[in-house]
Design a protein that fits this description.
This protein is mostly helical. Helices cover about 80% and strands about 0% of the residues. It has one domain.
Length: about 280
């Protein structure tokens, strides 16, 4: 696999992704919300005791759980399916490039576009907070790091959907359903399971970590130097069981989700007989 060819494909994918109007719609909506929260200085329910950057970052967690997975899934779902529908993927594979170069080049370009969109929201919020409060920047940067990992996980899942579909509209619909499942039905299903089976905190923690959004929420709250008591017995058990190693575990869970999703997408892409 030649890195030069992969970078050329990545540049092309970056340009294509940056033309995605939905990506910038989500990015601008998130940026506007981030600015509004930074100006209002909201603390967010259950996250009291945080000031400056940490306080506003806590207010952003629920918004990030909605916007970021949707952005990643939409970009990833259109990456391969869109080119396949237009016929450009067949043309690209007919060139002296390997499937690995095509896949990882497109993945790199899509990831760069996604990071650019996220940087817009975090950058505007950070500038507003620095000018208005001068609070501690550490929690805000930690939240940005966790959010970048969540975005890559969503992008990888989107690539899986894109390899399985032939039309961009179908991939977009599958991405929306996946987003609904992770964001809404995941929480509702977990709440229903708790009411039905009343699992022990250790079992419930395992269920939470099975959903990358829940792992992100745990890590984001911890990064703000707040207690996990806001998550009840699960948060307290997580701190008791893993202590200072909890952030590393949560980062490993998110990184593992990203690695597995991109690996599965790559295997599916290389095994397809047609483009």
């Amino acid at each position: 696999m030649e890195l030069k060819l992969m970078w050329i494909i990545a540049q092309r994918e970056l340009r294509e992704a940056l033309r995605n109007k939905w990506l910038w719609f989500y990015a601008l909506a998130f940026a506007a919300l981030a600015l509004a929260l930074s100006q209002a200085g909201l603390a967010g329910a259950g996250y009291s005791g945080l000031g400056g950057f940490g306080r506003t970052a806590a207010s952003l967690i629920n918004a990030l759980l909605l916007f970021v997975p949707l952005m990643g899934l939409s970009v990833g779902a259109s990456a391969l399916a869109g080119d396949r529908e237009r016929g450009t993927l067949i043309y690209l594979l007919a060139q002296p490039v390997s499937r690995a170069e095509v896949f990882w080049g497109k993945a790199l370009g899509a990831a760069l576009a996604l990071m650019a969109a996220l940087s817009l929201g975090f950058g505007l919020a950070g500038l507003a907070l620095a000018a208005g409060s001068g609070g501690e920047v550490g929690p805000f940067l930690a939240l940005a790091g966790y959010t970048a990992l969540l975005a890559l996980v969503a992008l990888g899942i989107g690539f899986v959907l894109s390899t399985l579909t032939r039309r961009a509209a179908t991939a977009g619909g599958a991405a929306l359903l996946t987003w609904l499942g992770l964001v809404f039905f995941g929480d509702l299903g977990l709440a229903g399971a708790v009411l039905t089976w009343r699992p022990a905190p250790s079992s419930l923690l395992g269920w939470l970590l099975a959903n990358p959004l829940q792992a992100y929420k745990l890590g984001a709250i911890y990064s703000l130097r707040a207690t996990l008591d806001t998550l009840g017995a699960v948060g307290q058990y997580a701190l008791y069981r893993f202590g200072e190693g909890l952030p590393g575990l949560l980062l490993a869970v998110l990184a593992g989700w990203g690695l597995v999703s991109f690996t599965v997408a790559f295997i599916l892409f290389t095994q397809r007989g047609e483009a």
